[in-house]
Design brief:
The structure is a single chain. With 147 residues, the protein is α+β, with helices and mostly antiparallel strands. It is built from 5 helices and 4 strands. The longest helix is centred in the last third of the chain and has 13 residues.
């Protein structure tokens, strides 16, 4: 959010916690809500989707991203070695879940998970995947509207 505030001179930028919503935000709705790599950490992702529906304006969009399990870990992976990931989704599972939750999926694609730069994250996520022959694009992104 700080990056957006510092680099984009339009709009208002807010951050909120879906498990403990900021009451001062009240009935504020947004034209764009970005939910980056959150859903895989939630015990009950329905709470997130209900929250998003409340906070998006009638003509607004939601950008939701999460690792694509089959690409990230392999199709035979049945658990996440990341102890903070409660559930990882493959492409079809996530899209079906969102559609069944009254969202329209405007666009759904796989992209690089991080901006390239020579730092610890770059090494851990990208260089190791290159060495092991795994694909570099493994983060799925959904552009959503509420039906």
């Amino acid at each position: 959010i700080e990056y957006c505030k510092n680099h984009y001179s339009f709009g208002n930028w807010y951050v909120d916690d879906i498990e403990n919503p900021d009451e001062s935000l009240g009935d504020i709705t947004a034209e764009l809500v970005i939910c980056s790599d959150v859903i895989e950490h939630l015990l009950d992702p329905d709470v997130l989707l209900v929250y998003l529906k409340k906070k998006i304006s009638n003509d607004g969009y939601i950008v939701l991203s999460t690792p694509e399990r089959d690409v990230f870990r392999g199709e035979s992976c049945t658990y996440s070695p990341n102890k903070f990931h409660i559930r990882e989704w493959n492409f079809e599972e996530l899209e079906n879940y969102l559609l069944s939750s009254d969202f329209s999926v405007v666009e759904h694609f796989i992209q690089y998970p991080i901006r390239f730069g020579f730092n610890r994250i770059f090494f851990n996520e990208v260089v190791k995947r290159l060495i092991t022959g795994k694909g570099l694009k493994y983060n799925q992104v959904c552009l959503l509207e509420v039906k």
